[in-house]
Design goal:
447 residues; two-stranded parallel ribbon; 19 helices; mainly alpha; 2 strands; Serine Threonine Protein Phosphatase 5, Tetratricopeptide repeat
Length: 447
């Protein structure tokens, strides 16, 4: 394959990543079938891969993909006699639209794209689907990722991802899920499902559950992009802006979270000059929008706005010593009261230890030991080991850090925990004085 063709294929892939959600959403509105819409969009992608290397990339690539997919829809309708009656009017409408040319198609797409994308996001994140299915379907249909990319990101086989997507489409079809926004009475619950999926995608990128990579930045980027789309489509929802604020601010640290060899660098050890100030400013602006909407409604912040406020406390501190740990502990207290999550309470313990000393944090952590919701959660012994080390109880700290290392499935994090356990062991042998340990960055991602 020569360089020009290779470059064109890269262009096709980039266009597809950006435009696929729009195209699938527009087609779903027309054919009222998510699976058929994706098939038609994939046909258009294949056509682009075949034609663009020789004919050149069209000026409006998204409109070209949409027009080509509509041509494929007409062809399928003409071939499928069993669906002819059902789609007879649709075929006539599509043929009429195509006679108007690409510009007319583009206008039609632009007229509906906002509503169509929002509907597609709500379908992909429908509560009738399992969480893994929602994540896979959202990344495939809205995020534009391939099955291989999703499988690589979550360390599962391509066949597993493909089966999840196929089952998800079948489930949506069997449940007769309409291509429409949920009624007002269901909107809040459904929106919560959408936000959770984007949040889960980001967290898997920010701190990978397993494998040999500490972070997966590409997943964070996809989640941030989905969040920004959602904020444009639902501009009056405070929690949408709260989630975007959280993702933008957390993303700002990505370059500083890993060392030259990919090893983890925890929060208090990070070079804050490497934090992305543009992303921080964007996140703070999104948080401001969330807070303004909440003030106008006279409402209390939700979980994403609270987490964004916590992230903002870190972002505003130019050095670790400037961090307002008392405010962070208070915000985690509000979040714990709202969610009832023991993982949030673990985060509060970390902040409390930084604000009031390790003994105060350890008292909270000790109350969490034995909580069934944290069974197997490696950050519980990880945080406890850090706090014990700061109190000079190095032998106990070593045991806890080794237990945390055994529980984690991420190889980079396991290596870090074992290094710290070794350091605690050496301190125990030497009878060293207690030292401040870096914050463990426990997250609320699996609360």
């Amino acid at each position: 394959m020569d360089s020009d063709v290779t470059e064109t294929h890269r262009t096709v892939e980039a266009v597809w990543r950006i435009e696929s959600g729009r195209v699938i959403a527009g087609l779903t509105r027309i054919v009222r079938d998510v699976g058929l819409a994706e098939d038609l969009a994939q046909d258009a992608l294949v056509a682009a891969l075949e034609q663009w290397p020789t004919q050149g990339v069209p000026r409006n690539a998204g409109a070209w993909l949409m027009a080509t997919a509509k041509h494929r829809a007409v062809d399928r309708i003409r071939r499928d006699q069993n669906l002819q009656r059902k789609y007879a009017q649709l075929a006539r409408d599509l043929e009429t639209a195509e006679e108007d040319g690409t510009a007319a198609v583009d206008d039609a797409v632009d007229d509906h794209v906002g509503d169509d994308l929002l509907r597609l996001i709500f379908i992909a994140c429908h509560p009738v689907l399992t969480t893994p299915a929602r994540v896979a379907l959202t990344l495939r249909m809205v995020g534009g990722l391939t099955t291989r990319e999703i499988a690589r990101a979550f360390l599962v086989t391509e066949s597993t991802v493909a089966q999840r997507i196929v089952r998800a489409k079948r489930t949506l079809a069997d449940a007769r899920v309409p291509f429409e926004l949920p009624p007002p009475a269901e909107l809040d619950a459904r929106l919560a499902s959408v936000l959770e999926v984007v949040y889960l995608i980001f967290n898997e990128g920010y701190a990978a559950t397993s494998g040999d990579r500490w972070t997966r930045p590409e997943l964070c980027e996809d989640a941030v992009r989905l969040g920004r789309v959602l904020a444009r489509l639902a501009p009056t929802e405070p929690e949408v802006h709260g989630l975007v604020a959280l993702l933008e601010i957390q993303s700002s640290r990505m370059r500083a979270r890993s060392g030259p060899g990919g090893e983890p660098v925890l929060l208090l050890d990070q070079d804050r000059s490497r934090w992305d100030r543009v992303l921080i400013d964007r996140g703070l602006a999104a948080l401001g929008r969330a807070e303004a909407l909440l003030a106008a409604e006279g409402a209390a912040p939700g979980p994403y706005a609270l987490q964004a406020a916590i992230a903002a406390c870190h972002a505003r501190a130019r050095t670790p010593e400037e961090t307002d740990w008392a405010s962070i502990a208070t915000l985690y207290g509000h979040l714990a009261a709202l969610t009832g999550s023991p993982v949030v309470e673990l985060n509060r313990a970390v902040a409390l230890a930084m604000a009031s000393g390790p003994a105060a944090g350890l008292a909270v952590v000790d109350r969490l030991v034995g909580d069934p919701a944290l069974a197997g959660y490696h950050l519980l012994p990880g945080v406890r080991g850090d706090l014990l080390g700061r109190l000079g109880r190095h032998a106990e700290a070593r045991a806890e850090l080794l237990r945390a290392a055994d529980l984690t499935e991420n190889e980079r994090e396991r290596a870090l925990l074992r290094e710290r356990a070794d350091a605690a062991g050496r301190a125990a042998e030497a009878g060293a004085e207690p030292e401040r340990e870096p914050e463990r960055e426990a997250t609320t991602r699996r609360r």
